[in-house]
């Protein structure tokens, strides 16, 4: 059975001038347990919107999202919150860390909804996870005192701390240098395989995409499978065409 599945999913919004913006069109996508999928696509192509639907943070305009065979649209809010909290780890493009709270408090936060040992030992579990992302010396620092790459690693530690069945990562290496990015992706891969979790990664980086087993490209809201070579060429060309003068 699939872990999460989208069937005939569309997403559109009404803009202030009353025109309709079609963000996603006719998306069919099945993610199995332990699957490893990458999604590439230009800025504005709908990648984060798609990830929010996979993570059950947003609902589609049409079509169905199901988790382990259950239609998400028919679940009550409390069940949905529990399901997400227990099973989904998000690495958001903008990190979404709590300001004024230490790295340790940020990473322990998802465990405050857990039961038993996970709850009682939450500080130790969070500290271990921060150690794995190389931040054991920054446990007490709030996000505003951390660099972009350090904040990204805190966000990754927070996403992984409950060993979710589904890890959704939106540009997880976007703020990192090549070496740190490689180390962080290895960590994401390791933890995903330890817990047999599925990992869906949105990325502009072909080396990150290359770690996945299946590759997709999102273009103007349409999702299509791609061979990596093609994804590489299109992304590289797209990046060059899109880069403003003087950049790179
Ligand atoms: N709630 C909304 N209301 C209006 N427009 C929206 C809304 N959410 C997303 N959009 C638009 O939908 C398109 C897709 O947005 P999305 O954030 O999914 O793109 P993306 O592929 O993640 O881009 P990036 O690579 O820049 O992060 C964009 O043009 C965005 O402006
Ligand atoms: Mg995005």
TrEMBL record:
The segment(s) forming the ABC transporter domain are 4-245
Instruction: From the Swiss-Prot or TrEMBL record, give the protein name.
Output: Lipoprotein-releasing system ATP-binding protein LolD
Q: Which UniProt keywords apply?
A: ATP-binding, Hydrolase, Lipoprotein, Nucleotide-binding, Transport
Q: Name one GO cellular component term.
A: plasma membrane
Q: Which SMART domains match?
A: AAA (SM00382)
Q: Which InterPro entries match?
A: AAA+_ATPase, ABC_transporter-like_ATP-bd, ABC_transporter-like_CS, ABC_transpr_LolD-like, MacB-like_ATP-bd, P-loop_NTPase
Enzyme Commission number, as recorded: 3.6.3.-
Which residues are listed as membrane-spanning? Answer: none
Q: Does the keyword Zinc apply?
A: no
Q: Pfam family example for this protein?
A: ABC_tran
| Keyword match Transmembrane | no
Molecular function terms, GO-annotated: ATP binding; ATP hydrolysis activity; transmembrane transporter activity
């Amino acid at each position: 059975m699939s872990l999460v599945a989208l069937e005939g999913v569309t997403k559109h919004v009404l803009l202030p001038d009353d025109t309709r913006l079609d963000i996603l069109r006719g998306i069919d996508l099945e993610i199995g347990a332990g699957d490893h999928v990458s999604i590439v696509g230009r800025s504005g192509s709908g990648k984060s919107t798609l990830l929010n639907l996979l993570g059950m943070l947003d609902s589609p305009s049409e079509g169905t999202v199901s988790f382990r065979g259950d239609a998400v649209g028919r679940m009550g809010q409390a069940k949905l919150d529990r399901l997400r909290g227990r099973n989904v780890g998000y690495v958001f493009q903008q990190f979404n860390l709590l300001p004024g709270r230490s790295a340790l408090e940020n990473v322990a936060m998802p465990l405050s909804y857990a039961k038993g040992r996970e709850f009682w030992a939450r500080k130790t579990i969070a500290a271990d996870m921060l150690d794995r992302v190389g931040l054991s010396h920054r446990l007490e620092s709030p996000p505003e005192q951390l660099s972009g790459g350090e904040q990204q690693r805190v966000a990754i530690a927070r996403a992984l701390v409950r060993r979710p069945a589904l890890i959704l990562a939106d540009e997880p290496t976007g703020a990192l240098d090549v070496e740190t990015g490689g180390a962080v992706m290895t960590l994401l891969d390791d933890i995903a395989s330890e817990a047999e979790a599925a990992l869906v990664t949105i990325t502009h980086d072909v080396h990150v995409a290359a770690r996945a087993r299946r590759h997709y490209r999102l273009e103007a809201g349409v999702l299509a499978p791609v061979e990596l070579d093609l994804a590489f060429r299109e992304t590289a060309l797209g990046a060059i065409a899109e880069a403003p003068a003087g950049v790179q």
